[in-house]
Automatic annotation (TrEMBL):
Protein's name in the database: Sugar ABC transporter substrate-binding protein
Membrane-spanning residues: none
UniProt cross-references to Pfam families, sorted A to Z: SBP_bac_1 (PF01547)
PROSITE patterns named among the record's database cross-references: TAT
Alphabetical keyword list: Cell membrane, Lipoprotein, Membrane, Palmitate, Signal
Source organism: Kribbella soli
Source organism phylogeny: Bacteria, Bacillati, Actinomycetota, Actinomycetes, Propionibacteriales
InterPro entries linked: Bact_solute-bd_prot1 (IPR050490), SBP (IPR006059), TAT_signal (IPR006311)
Length: 427
């Protein structure tokens, strides 16, 4: 259940949405549930249960759809219809949120535009008693002007996993800097094995971590572009250097979010999310190590993108209070379902501190190492970073990484777009 990477614009989810590649994971099935979940009369009269529509994108992990249906069926206070959406979920959601026939409850990723467009309901009342049990970053990424708009469902750190035996055989230590990573990828490349897999586009997904590893960020605390200095340009240039080294696997049967490449011995290292750990452990056993995205140099520190999915309530819902009650029941009160969702369909960190602390599957081995790296180096999304900004950043990365364009020139182009967006939002 990986998260998207909105800042780089090329997460597993974004990639699949834009290319229709979800069919590579599962058949292009019809959305589950034939109706919208809306009551014909506005709902709830005469003592009948209200109808609620809950929307999900299509997860690739086996059992996720069945779990979502199980949770909905178990809810006693409303009839919850689950819509499981293959293909371009974001486009369908954007349309649905404009209509009274859209979702009551939906998952997604928060940004300021959702508030400016009056699409989501504040959830401070249902979060009040448990706010301190959520990780600060997961609160901040769903908070704007002091109001909380979403409940984090899962945390998805993205890191680099590697084959210990291959590094040991080559006499290579786990990379600590980006230069170390480039050097290791070259040395690990043979006529049968590439050094690293970072996605079939050559590494756009690492744009965010590279930026943070240079000491930069997307937006500063006062909402100014934070990716424009020489160190950021240097980091982006290093991604091109890695791509140009011919040690990056391209043309893999699936993309960076799937562990097939490392599991089948096609690469020695792979950038991927913690969700893939169970599958990698099954294939590789103890021959699996993990590092964060390496720091640019001694002046900076490594980076781990801490992504995830969040549950929201639509302002268009005919039953806002009932929808909020359902979200509270599922994602705040029902701890057994939250644990199930985080740990039984790939590995994810439960957003609740109390649940994460007792998650037995995350207490040892590479999973525990990943959790620790996330605690030490994790960063989350800035809600002021909009999809349009993300597209400009993705263009920057594409032009630098694959085309070898001048990083400073590409940064200037992206900065212009980001500044225009910031002016539109904040004046």
């Amino acid at each position: 259940m990986p998260a998207h990477v909105p800042n780089a614009g090329l997460s597993r989810r974004d990639l699949l949405k834009r290319t229709g590649g979800l069919a590579a994971l599962a058949a292009f099935t019809a959305a589950c549930g034939g109706n919208t979940g809306r009551p014909s009369s506005g709902g709830g009269s005469g003592g009948a249960k209200v109808n609620l529509a809950q929307w999900y994108h299509q997860y690739g992990e086996t059992g996720t759809q069945q779990a979502a249906l199980k949770y909905a069926k178990a809810y006693p206070d409303a009839n919850v219809t689950v819509q499981w959406t293959p293909g371009d979920y974001d486009a369908k959601l954007a349309s649905g949120l404009l209509s009274s026939k859209g979702p009551d409850v939906f998952e997604g990723h928060f940004n300021i535009g959702m508030v400016k467009s009056n699409q989501v309901v504040p959830l401070d009342d249902i979060m009040a008693d448990v706010k301190d049990d959520f990780q600060p970053g997961d609160l901040a990424t769903n908070t704007l002007d002091g109001k909380i708009y979403g409940v984090r469902m899962i945390i998805d750190p993205q890191v680099i996993y590697y084959r210990k035996s291959l590094l040991d055989k080559a006499g290579i230590k786990p990379p600590e800097t980006i230069d170390d990573l480039i050097s290791a990828a070259k040395e690990l490349t043979t006529n049968k094995v590439k050094g690293i897999f970072v996605g079939n586009d050559g590494g756009n997904v690492m744009g965010g971590p590279a930026l943070y590893s240079s000491g930069g960020e997307y937006l500063t605390k006062d909402n100014k572009p934070g990716f424009t200095d020489d160190r950021a340009a240097q980091a982006f240039g290093k991604l091109h250097e890695l791509y140009a080294s011919k040690s990056v696997l391209l043309g893999a049967p699936t993309d960076w979010w799937d562990p097939t490449a490392i599991n089948q011995g096609l690469v020695a290292m792979q950038f991927i999310g913690m969700w893939a750990v169970p599958g990698m452990q099954k294939a590789l056993g103890d021959d699996l190590g993990v590092i964060p995205f390496p720091k640019l140099d001694a002046q900076a520190k490594p980076a781990v993108y801490s992504g995830g999915w969040t549950q929201f309530v639509s302002t268009k819902s005919a039953n806002v209070d009932a929808a909020k009650k359902f979200v509270k029941w599922l994602w705040i009160d029902k701890s057994e379902y939250q644990e199930d969702w985080s740990l039984n369909y790939g590995f994810h960190i439960p957003p609740r501190k109390s649940l994460a602390a007792k998650a037995a599957k995350l207490q040892s081995g590479v999973a525990a190492d990943t959790v620790k790296l996330t605690q030490d180096y994790g960063y989350t999304d800035n809600p002021a970073w909009t999809p349009k900004m993300g597209t400009a950043f993705t263009d920057l990365l594409t032009n630098v990484i694959k085309k070898g364009a001048d990083p400073a020139a590409e940064i200037a182009k992206a900065e212009k777009t980001v500044n225009a967006e910031l002016s539109r939002l904040f004046g």
